[in-house]
Design brief:
Helix 4 (43-66) runs antiparallel to helix 5 (70-87), helix 5 (70-87) packs antiparallel against helix 6 and helix 9 crosses helix 10. 50% of the residues lie in helices and 13% in strands. Helix 16 links the parallel strand 7 (341-346) and strand 8 (366-371). The chain is α/β, with parallel strands linked by helices. The protein starts with 7 loop residues before the first helix and ends with a helix. It has three domains: 1-118, de novo design (two linked rop proteins) (Up-down Bundle), CATH 1.20.1440; 123-258 and 328-402, Rossmann fold (3-Layer(aba) Sandwich); 259-325, no CATH class. The chain contains 17 helices and eight strands.
Length: 402
């Protein structure tokens, strides 16, 4: 896909809503207009352009709702939520930029407003978790009349939110007849932005409590609950399945057996020995400083590691970040996954290299689905061809769940 935004990193963020366009989360010409407004500007201009567009859509949605045009209002509210969500990606990091909180809160308001309208209205809920609660949404299957249906629990990764997951996955799954449960876990969305709760590698601790809540919902078929994760969720979902055996299937998009291995590869590429890369606390200060020089000089690496990685993991230095990533592995627990697993891999996605490990470890429990650039789906999470991803995943689930 040709670039829309001038800056490569901003273009990566700005094309997220383009991937959601088939499901109402973006409009091609609107996004081109936003990009033209940003021009050669940076993160501030990007934020301003997206929030201005979102403000306009929110205003139009309120007017449509007041006039009784509820279908139009639903579409406008939901697209506004998508644009608010896109606006603050470049602002990631700790301390939290107040503009990020403002856009996120507006994003939630617009999502709630949109989901409350339409033939299958839904709203926010709270899922008990340890000594607090997680925000969640139970999206009913389209045209199911509220009856018992299979449920897909969708889990995000490092940087997406419930809004992103709604457009990327839940709209298609609901249309296919699946109830969908979306939530923010530790290190995600509200739990990170408002509460400063960092990510944790033992996602089974999280998912078990989410499944407990799901089983109390009358519309859920207890024998057909699926856990599906995208991006880092391609590790979190199978990790959850390693300790939660009430799941009928799990989807990893892309499959990531050992996240720490990817970070170790990065560290060695920056000149650290293999042994030091696996024991990052032993790396001397001069080497860490040299590595940080390389990372901060590259806008994408700086965003991924310093702005996002440090923040999500609750650390403030590279050695601690590398040490944290080493905990994200299925090596000691993956063999406990007992349900069928679908693993995706996209041709140009570095993280998809972890898909081979699933088949090697779990054998015929694994179905691997490959995506190519020729199909327009060769990028991370098949971002610009989510319809193809959803079609293949949902076909597999239809067959697997009977």
């Amino acid at each position: 896909m040709a670039a829309i935004f001038t800056d490569p990193l901003l273009d990566e963020f700005g094309q997220w809503p383009l991937g959601y366009a088939p499901y109402g989360g973006g409009d091609v010409d609107e996004l081109r207009a936003i990009a033209a407004t940003v021009g050669d500007g940076g993160a501030d201009a990007f934020y301003d352009a997206f929030t201005t567009a979102a403000d306009r859509l929110a205003h139009d949605a309120a007017a449509a709702e007041a006039a009784g045009h509820f279908a139009a209002a639903r579409e406008l509210h939901l697209r506004a939520s998508s644009y608010y969500a896109a606006a603050y990606h470049p602002l990631y990091g700790s301390p939290v930029d107040p503009r990020l909180i403002d856009a996120f809160d507006k994003q939630v308001v617009e999502l709630n407003s949109g989901l409350s309208l339409g033939p299958e209205p839904s709203g926010p809920t709270r899922i008990p978790y340890d000594d607090t609660t997680l925000p969640g949404y139970l999206i009913p299957a389209a045209n199911a009349g509220g009856g018992r249906r299979p449920l897909i629990i969708f889990t995000n990764g490092y940087d997406a939110t419930i809004t992103d997951m709604y457009f990327a996955s839940a709209v298609a799954a609901s249309r296919r007849g699946y109830h969908c449960l979306l939530f923010d876990g530790p290190g995600q969305g509200e739990m990170l932005y408002h509460h400063g709760m960092p990510m944790r590698p033992d996602w089974e601790h999280v998912i078990t409590q989410v499944v407990d809540w799901a089983l109390r919902q009358d519309i859920v078929d207890a024998g057909r609950i699926v856990l599906s994760g995208w991006s880092l969720g391609g590790y979190l979902a199978p990790r959850g399945a390693s300790g939660e055996h009430r799941l009928a299937a799990v989807v990893a998009d892309p499959g990531q057996w050992d996240v720490g291995a990817a970070m170790t590869t990065m560290a060695t590429a920056l000149g650290v020995s293999a042994d030091a890369a696996t024991h990052p606390k032993t790396i001397d200060a001069a080497t860490i400083a040299k590595m940080m020089g390389v990372i901060t000089a590259d806008p994408r690496l700086r965003w991924m590691i310093v702005q996002r990685g440090f923040w999500v993991n609750g650390v403030d230095n590279l050695a601690d970040f590398l040490a944290a990533t080493l905990r994200y592995t299925l090596d000691d627990v993956g063999r406990h996954i007992s349900c069928p697993v679908l693993v995706t891999s996209a041709e140009n996605d570095f993280l998809s290299q972890g898909a081979d490990r699933f088949t090697a470890e779990l054998g015929d429990r694994v179905t691997r689905v490959r995506f190519t650039a020729a199909e327009g789906a060769g990028m991370h999470c098949e971002m610009l061809n989510r319809p193809l991803l959803n079609e293949r995943v949902l076909d597999w689930l239809d067959t697997t769940l009977g």
